[in-house]
Amino acid sequence: MRLSHFFFWAAAGAAAVTLDELARDVERVESLREIKDVTATFAQLAQFGRYRDMADLFTDDGVLLWGNISVTGPEAIGKWLEEDAGDMNGMIRPGSLDTLVLATPLVNLAADGKTAKGRWNGWRFQGGGGKTRMQGGIWENEYAVVMEEGGRWRWRVRVMRYYGLYEGDYEKGWRNVGGRDFGTVPEFHYSAEEAGVPIPKAVGTPGAGGVTEGEIGRRIEDLNDEDEVRNLQHAWGYYVDRRLWGEVGELFGSHDWGVVKVDNVGVFEGPGGIREGLERWMGPEGLSQGVLNEHLIFDTVVKIRDEVDPEVPNAEKMADVRGIEIGLIGDQDKGTASWRFSFFQNSFIKRNGIWQFLNVTIAPLVVANYSDGWGNGGVMPRSTVAPVFLDYTTRSTKKPSTQTTSTDSLPELSRRLSRSYAYEGAESISNAYGFYIDFIDGAACSLMAAIHHPLANKESPFAGFYHTRQRVLDACTASYGTSSRPTRSGISFHWRPQPVIHVSQDGRSASLRARLLQPATDKTSAGTIRGGMYHDQMVLDENGSWKLWSVTIDEFYWAMNNWTEGWGGVEVRDKNAPDQPPPRDLVRQFPPDLWLNEMEGEREIGFMGGRGRYVSWPEIQRMWFGYRNPVSGGVPKDGSYWPGCVPCYQHKPEWGMTKHSWQEPPTGPTLVRAMFAAGNGSSEWDDGTFISVSVTPGPGEVVEGVVRLVGREIELEYELSEADGGRVTFELPRNMSGGFHMLEATFSGSNRLNPGRDTVDLTLPGGPGSLLGD
Ligand SMILES: *[C@@H]1O[C@H](CO)[C@@H](O)[C@H](O)[C@H]1NC(C)=O
Ligand SMILES: *[C@@H]1O[C@H](CO)[C@@H](O)[C@H](O)[C@H]1NC(C)=O
Ligand SMILES: *[C@@H]1O[C@H](CO)[C@@H](O)[C@H](O)[C@H]1NC(C)=O
Ligand SMILES: *[C@@H]1O[C@H](CO)[C@@H](O)[C@H](O)[C@H]1NC(C)=O
Ligand SMILES: *[C@@H]1O[C@H](CO)[C@@H](O)[C@H](O)[C@H]1NC(C)=O
Ligand SMILES: *[C@@H]1O[C@H](CO)[C@@H](O)[C@H](O)[C@H]1NC(C)=O
Ligand SMILES: *[C@@H]1O[C@H](CO)[C@@H](O)[C@H](O)[C@H]1NC(C)=O
């Protein structure tokens, strides 16, 4: 790996990174995380009507701009929020609901690291006292860091600017605010180039922070851990949506103490109990026609604990997660459809280097059937689980790591930090895409194209893939022309929430799965919601900017027909209708470089524009996964596994990032298993003197890297090559002392594979110092 390619500017070029420079970079990534956490906490507090606490997240001179309202200072902001909500404040009374979600952040830190700007999509569902209200739009916020006593910094909101774009009550649905055409697009705080640079190059020399390498090591390790835990939480959601109970169970690892508590529903314990409970609550494995089981996850805050809970066995580290869930649930054949507004608070442990679920608490606040809405209380008692709000302000005050050793050099720490920065870069450029496509026209086409790498490929839904940025641009202008559209009567939004992001070992590339969540609004008719899935890749370019490398859009998995019927009343597609509609005129005039319907194999079967008969909600389309189970490492049981860049995997390998100096990001954990291997009888040794170590990657992935077996008396090492097939057998030295030995087997990882480890316990006969066989 070449140091010159790390993002962190301090490390770029020949100059070696200093500890102070690295400390500054750590603080900048932590800042970005805290800004997202402040905003998510603002949303989480609204669910409980805690408007004063929301106002306390502002700076003393903070301003709330809500449409044409302007309020200054926490005191006034709290009062305004409270009055604006009125009865619809989420407090315990029938029908009272205030679920606000702020999603799809694109945050840019200022060069001095002291202020930031962030764009968000937001939705608010309120009810109470018989009334309902829905609002949606764009937030353009400003943030500032405030020094507190003891030198601790804290991020606060300086300006919260809400551009309301659609609103309405439940009965009539939402429409454009004011029933007008949209004119100007809510101003973007960033340029296309800046969208890929959430943290710009720092200016000046860093102050002497007085931090140690151990502290910095721990803080970077926690940032890396946050990424894994957030992925795990988001991956949970995708498995639950498809009722993949086998996959869900595997997220608890192989131990037997997992707990899922669904308030007012039940407490499910252990692998069998969890599966049975979830089946009873949500239905059997898999989806059948007409079943919608969407659980949209928003505002996830991850906190890595300082200490592990001594009650929990084998925990190397622990973490807590807090978030908001909006459920769109139903079974069209049974005539049921409901909304479920919940919060969740879950705990996680790290074991053998792999994060896994420990327990889950889901607390439904309002469950309402679609036909009645939530204005009069819903159909279930409100949860009485006391919500926790995680303290996200402690990242910079961690004790030194016990896992970071003095051999972790500064360049190595810098590499690890660049992987967490990559997570941010990938999320940022992903959301940049959605924000541009929302307001697509000739002008937005150039912005949308500009966030692609010159060698990128991008799908045009129902048609195919265009390869190179120029072709992506030309395809867009073929559809939308080159000039900006002065007004538009409606918008279909392209939210990309709930990302699962896998970052390469060198922090220069990433694979991302995110929802396509598409609320639509119009001037005259009530809005609708639809859902699809994105499978993307992104790369860090030579100018230090994140760019899209590959964009695949699987749509639609489900859709509302209209507001009145919701997701319940959608007619099944006529069995006698043609398998596929004729291609759009535009794509015939400007043919893709790879048509969906020429992609042999299973990948595009059932998609509109793809192969075979297209599948349309309420029929159930196959769901693809680009990653393996984040805990068990297994591929989806039905084989719906398609890693990396979608057109590259089987059809256009030459479009792949590894052909252009980027590493292919890992697809999941690398499982390492160390176990006894019997001798072959030729030795005077007893069985159990051989330890075999196997390293299991994903399908088609080659294991190369160093395996080490280390105990108090031994240190054995072997370099695996492709020919070893991921397995090595070590013969233990004959002079090891009798008694108990704990051996740790580690795999170093490679350009493609994550590192991994396992332990094995060994008791040799004979007392201390005696030779075996004596
Ligand atoms: C502010 O906007 C609301 C509705 O959007 C409107 O009713 C009100 O008249 C406006 N107030 C001012 C001062 O423009
Ligand atoms: C809506 O809820 C009521 C109970 O409040 C129930 O009687 C009715 O069947 C539900 N309708 C649907 C479509 O689920
Ligand atoms: C989950 O585990 C954490 C940590 O041990 C514990 O504090 C919490 O009470 C547990 N929650 C449930 C629902 O078991
Ligand atoms: C990097 O920046 C230079 C100068 O602006 C530009 O010519 C080049 O195309 C950029 N590289 C990429 C990959 O966009
Ligand atoms: C909604 O769709 C249904 C068919 O699913 C149709 O019968 C009904 O007229 C539509 N309602 C409106 C308001 O468009
Ligand atoms: C048995 O194992 C030993 C040590 O690994 C090896 O040298 C020997 O060739 C093996 N014998 C047979 C018959 O496989
Ligand atoms: C076992 O023998 C090796 C050399 O053959 C030596 O390096 C090692 O120190 C010995 N270990 C013990 C525990 O005596």
How are the SSEs ordered, and which strands pair?
Elements: H1 19-46, H2 51-55, E1 58-66, E2 69-72, H3 74-85, E3 97-109, E4 115-128, E5 131-147, E6 153-168, E7 175-176, H4 192-195, H5 213-241, H6 245-250, E8 259-262, E9 266-269, H7 270-282, E10 291-304, E11 317-331, E12 336-351, E13 354-369, H8 410-438, H9 442-450, E14 452-460, E15 464-467, H10 469-480, E16 490-492, E17 500-503, E18 509-522, E19 528-540, E20 546-559, H11 585-589, E21 594-595, H12 646-650, E22 671-677, E23 690-696, E24 705-710, E25 715-720, E26 727-731, E27 739-747, E28 756-764
Parallel strand pairs: 1-6, 8-13, 14-20
Antiparallel strand pairs: 1-2, 3-4, 4-5, 5-6, 6-7, 8-9, 10-11, 11-12, 12-13, 14-15, 15-21, 16-18, 17-18, 18-19, 19-20, 22-23, 23-26, 24-25, 24-27, 27-28
Helix pairs in contact: 1-5, 1-8, 5-8, 8-9, 9-10
Bound molecules: 2-acetamido-2-deoxy-beta-D-glucopyranose (7 copies).
Keywords:
single chain; 774 residues; alpha+beta; Nuclear Transport Factor 2, Chain: A; Immunoglobulin-like; eight-stranded mixed beta sheet; seven-stranded mixed beta sheet; 12 helices; 28 strands; 33% strand; globular; disordered N terminus; disordered C terminus; binds 2-acetamido-2-deoxy-beta-D-glucopyranose
